[in-house]
């Protein structure tokens, strides 16, 4: 677990982290995703798990604004989505 500014990231593999923002509504998933991307190293992957549909647009837009690569946005089930971002 990596902690920076009160943000909890779970390292799932070398260079891969998971951020679970289920239960948060806008703008918090985007804010927490930005903080997580600041906390990890270049070329690391960040997987974000969320249950707020509007964040499936705002989080990838924020990542691209920060010049990171959005690899995938997928619906996991009827309530949850996963966003995979590679930090540059």
Structure write-up:
With 88 residues, the chain is an alpha+beta fold. The protein has one domain: 2-Layer Sandwich (Translation Initiation Factor IF3), CATH 3.30.110. The chain is 26% helix and 39% strand. It has two helices and six strands, in the order E-E-E-H-E-H-E-E. Strands 1-2-3-4-6-5 form a six-stranded mixed beta sheet, with helices on one face. Strand 3, helix 1 and strand 4 form a beta-alpha-beta unit. Helix 1 packs parallel to helix 2. The longest helix has 12 residues.
CATH fold type:
Translation Initiation Factor IF3
According to DSSP, the number of beta strands is 6
- How big is the Rg? 12 Å
Q: What is the overall silhouette? A: globular
Quickly give the structural class.
Answer: alpha+beta
Percentage of residues assigned to helices: 25-40%
Model regions low in confidence, pLDDT < 50 over at least 5 residues: none
Question: How many helical elements?
Answer: 2
Which labels suit this protein?
Translation Initiation Factor IF3; six-stranded mixed β-sheet; 2 helices; 6 strands
How is the topology of this model organized?
Blueprint: E1 2-4, E2 7-13, E3 16-20, H1 28-39, E4 45-50, H2 55-65, E5 69-75, E6 81-86
Parallel strand pairs: 3-4
Antiparallel strand pairs: 1-2, 2-3, 4-6, 5-6
């Amino acid at each position: 677990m990596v902690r920076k500014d009160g943000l909890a990231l779970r390292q799932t593999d070398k260079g891969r982290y998971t951020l679970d923002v289920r239960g948060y509504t806008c703008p918090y998933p985007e804010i927490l995703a930005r903080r997580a991307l600041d906390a990890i190293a270049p070329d690391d992957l960040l997987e974000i798990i969320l249950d707020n549909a509007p964040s499936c647009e705002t989080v990838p837009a924020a990542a691209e604004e920060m010049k990171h690569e959005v690899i995938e946005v997928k619906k996991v089930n009827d309530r949850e989505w996963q966003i995979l971002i590679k930090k540059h």
